[in-house]
Amino acid sequence: MYQQMTLSHAEARPALASPWARLAALTIDGALFAQAQGFVLMALLLVLTPLGGLDNSVWPWDVLAELLAVTVALALIWSRAIRTPGMAIMSLRIVAAEGETPGILRYHIRAAGVVAATAAGSMAGGVLLLSMAPHGLDSLNYGWILPRVIPVVAIALLPYAPLLWDPERRSLWDRLSGTRVIDAKPEARREVSQA
User: Fold this and answer.
1) Which 3-state string (H, E, C) describes the chain?
2) For a Cys-Cys bond, which of 49, 83, 91, 142 suits 185, CB 3.0-4.6 Å?
């Protein structure tokens, strides 16, 4: 009887997602979001060009609007499908720290954390890249940029580093929202129950 209770408790606790699976899902989602962003930008250009084009004076506001749109999109995707396309391909799922499905507020907090951390990491990587440019923006070309990609990507991914050493494999946004990412494959649950 004691052994049965131990197995049923272990079966209820799914395996945590590996940092590498989460990085692969992030890469897939980043590529899909970049494509969606390109389509939206092309649609805006097709609509706004005949009307006089884009005005550069609204630059900070359009970036903030885009970050807000991505935050809301992520929260809606997570609340409706419980995973992004990248997470679905990698068989990952978001759960509340207690194991149940998170509510919409947790998804919004998590999405805001992901977007803020990714934007901060990307901006820091961009600043590093520009600070290494010998003659400012005029010197940026592929021959100059390619050898410097690794440190820039490393800086941009710095917000994801806690996944490597955190025992629960939770990032800052996981902790803020009270969520964690689990491996949703059935064999991962079996491995945990046999351990």
Assistant:
1) CHHHHHHHHHHCCCCECCHHHHHHHHHHHHHHHHHHHHHHHHHHHHHHCCCCCCCHHHHHHHHHHHHHHHHHHHHHHHHHHCCCHHHHHCCEEEEECCCCCCCHHHHHHHHHHHHHHHHHHHHHHHHHHHHCCEEEECCCCHHHHHHHHHHHHHHHCHHHCHHHHCCCCCCHHHHHHCEEEEECCHHHHHHHHHC
2) 91
